[in-house]
């Protein structure tokens, strides 16, 4: 018979690792399951400047996550590298299945996160964290006095573009249509911003450069004309921010009875409870207004604390 854990955490990003840390310190038998590398989206961030109390110069996403992982290990958190493909969340014992194993637990903390919808251009993957970003709040400081381009035309894209104008000397929105999809109130503010420019009917075909982003080819969707953009010689680089939406890693929970919104994000209360008793959601996978390392870590801590409370009430 499989071991029945007190807590199983799905995902080893900041939310999952914080949940593991708090559960482990509470002497709960805890298993963190991650299908890939620890860290989630933060693992592709070269520099971090906005994590409270950060004292390590040149902190990177991987270095921060490595310390979180070590903290979990210190408090006895078990680890499994596996891909869960079937979940049964009802009942007192939750059952998670993969191709090679079955896991059982009294509680489950879902921290499988979300991922930025890719721009879809050639070279995008190679230049993630080297000029291509999906988070203005995370990376705006690194482009102070540089030119940046924002791909998208919805609320998030325009709001993030306006935020970037506080740092970059020029921000250009690249949109595949000839008008924005953002709310009119947001558009009005954007059009009044002198540092904000627009490239209509355009998509990004390719990004490139010598180790850091300095070239981009765009295409006019109406004429098919290709234009190559090269970074200013004094700058040597520019930034491209993709804001065409995020996608939650939640498909596996479809049909399980777990409530999700129309986009696949999981609603919770302030204590990370989902609609299923003993099942909690933390981090980017849940419905929330700000997706950052600090909010993910807080979610994980709350979820683990509530999991302990739930287990105690079962006794």
Automatic annotation (TrEMBL):
Query: What's a GO cellular component annotated to this UniProt protein?
Result: cytoplasm
Q: What does this protein's record comment on cofactor binding?
A: Binds 1 FAD per subunit.
Annotated GO molecular function terms are: thioredoxin-disulfide reductase (NADPH) activity
Q: What EC number(s) would the UniProt record show?
A: 1.8.1.9
Q: PROSITE patterns from the entry? A: PYRIDINE_REDOX_2
Q: Which cofactor does it need?
A: FAD
- Recite the UniProt keywords alphabetically: Disulfide bond, FAD, Flavoprotein, NADP, Oxidoreductase, Redox-active center
Q: Where is the FAD/NAD(P)-binding domain?
A: 5-300
Q: Which Gene3D superfamilies match?
A: FAD/NAD(P)-binding domain
Query: One biological process GO term for this chain?
Result: removal of superoxide radicals
What catalytic activity does the UniProt entry give for this protein?
Answer: [thioredoxin]-dithiol + NADP(+) = [thioredoxin]-disulfide + NADPH + H(+)
Its assembly, as annotated, is: Homodimer.
Listed NCBIfam families: TRX_reduct (TIGR01292)
Assigned protein family: Belongs to the class-II pyridine nucleotide-disulfide oxidoreductase family.
Q: What is this protein called?
A: Thioredoxin reductase
Protein's gene: trxB
